[in-house]
Design a protein that fits this description.
By secondary structure, the protein is α/β, with parallel strands linked by helices. Helices cover 45% and strands 19% of the residues. It has one domain (4-120): Response regulator (Rossmann fold), CATH 3.40.50.2300. The chain has helices at 12-24, 35-45, 61-70, 88-96, 109-120; strands at residues 4-8, 28-32, 49-52, 79-83, 101-104. A five-stranded parallel β-sheet has the order 2-1-3-4-5, with helices on both faces. The two termini are 16 Å apart.
Length: 121
Amino acid sequence: MSSKILVVDDLQSELDLISQYLTEEGYTIVTATNGAEALEKVSQNKPDAIVTDWMMPEMGGLDLARKLRKNPETADIPVVACTAKSRDVDRMWAAKQGIEAYVTKPCTKQDLVSALRAAMK
């Protein structure tokens, strides 16, 4: 049985690319275009992990991670940030919000899959 991954990004091109990378690796994909929609999808689909953009309208990836960590039913879902933010301070802030792995855009398939596998261990 393949793992179900929720991919969250407000840019359709990024959503499609990340989804393609993960589908090629055998993952089942569910998508959302912002953190608020992602929270709804989490309750409906119970993903094994989440790959999320950082900056999105309505609710960004950091707020999504924060809300997931506060809910006992979702607190253990691994979260990977896939973002254009690349400063060390951004990585540290993400880790404080409960994000297990961090990939800088534009990301390669290998970097994304490696980060996701590490987060899911």
